[in-house]
Amino acid sequence: MRNTNHCQNCSAHNIGNLVKLGINMENFDYVIALAGNPNTGKSTVFNKLTGLRQHTGNWPGKTVARAEGGYIFSEKRYKIVDLPGTYSLLSTSSDEEVARNFILFGQPDVTVIVADATRLERNLNLVLQILEITNRAVLCLNLIDEADRNNIKVDERILSKELGIPVVPTAARQGTGMDMLLNFIHQVATGKYVCKPHRITADFPAVKNAVNRLSKKISETYLNLPNARWIALRLLEGDQRVIDAVRNNELQDLVSERSFPKDPSDGKEQNLNISDVLEPVV
Ligand SMILES: Nc1nc2c(ncn2[C@@H]2O[C@H](COP(=O)(O)OP(=O)(O)OP(=O)(O)O)[C@@H](O)[C@H]2O)c(=O)[nH]1
Ligand SMILES: [Mg+2]
């Protein structure tokens, strides 16, 4: 019998798309994305985790710089990719597009979101956007030393419960919290910690109805896609990159290795037609 459940212990990343994005996964077990607002300490975290095992270049076809490196933890080989700092993932600038496409199409095993503990409210905007796209994330609550100095207290346990992902307070410049960060990345990558990311629900009845109907159709077509609701929202907004991904079967490719049509009598993959999904709800 065909198994439609994606194994929690297996790696989640999409090799084909990673290659297209210029990431070579030969000799690595897992790929970790490092995301966050500008100036939150992403590169400092990256340097602490990788030491000198890193190299820099550009993203394919872009002038946006990329750093990638590696480390071994608990006998697993991790590749870590430093994404450009962004305030949002709405794809309005090259930086946002690179960060968003990597998380959406590369499907990293874990996305580490580096947030500035002294400006948590502003940083949570990006955190929530990332949690719409992936359900494998760890929040690195960095600059905790600065927060302490300014008498800002963050209860990481409550935050973790509300966000549904591990939260690790760190002071990356001093190396504080890096062991715990490595541990949580490992737990999420290997499926020992199953995240239950907080997802925002639409309050307006008309929007809610449209999003619910469209997400249902998307989930039925692309089994195991972790972000049907986010895809539905983007399609309703007319996001060209996501519309193209439906049209040229990129979304199908994201899930085809691990999902099968619901009706076993139909051996063909059920490709979602963009007009099928947009017409009934708009
Ligand atoms: N006090 C303190 N400073 C930190 C910490 N982490 C990073 N920094 C400092 O914050 C500044 C920015 O750090 P980066 O690692 O360059 O931040 P970034 O997120 O990579 O920045 P962009 O790539 O420009 O978006 C540097 O001066 C770091 O030394 C920390 O935990 N505590
Ligand atoms: Mg940086």
**What is the CA-based Rg, rounded?**
19 Å
Q: If strands are numbered along the chain, what order do they take across the biggest sheet?
A: 2-3-4-1-5-6-7
Give the ordered list of helices and strands.
HEHEEEHEHEHHEHHHHHH
Helix and strand content put the structural class at alpha/beta
Measured between the Cα atoms of the first and last residue, the distance is 38 Å
Q: What general form does the structure show?
A: globular
Percent of residues in beta strands?
15-25%
How many E-type strands?
A: 7
Major beta sheet summary: 7 strands, mixed
What binds here, in terms of ligands, is: guanosine-5'-triphosphate, magnesium ion
* Tally of contiguous helical segments: 12
**Whole-number average pLDDT?**
84
Helix content: 40-55%
Give unreliable regions as ranges. 1-6, 257-282
Structure overview:
The radius of gyration is 19 Å and the shape is globular. 41% of the residues lie in helices and 16% in strands. The protein has a 7-stranded mixed sheet with strand order 2-3-4-1-5-6-7, sandwiched between helices. It is built from 12 helices and 7 strands. By secondary structure, it is an alpha/beta fold. Helix 8 (205-221) packs across helix 9 (228-237). Mean pLDDT is 84; it is low at 1-6 and 257-282. Bound molecules: guanosine-5'-triphosphate and magnesium ion. Guanosine-5'-triphosphate binds next to helix 2 and helix 5.
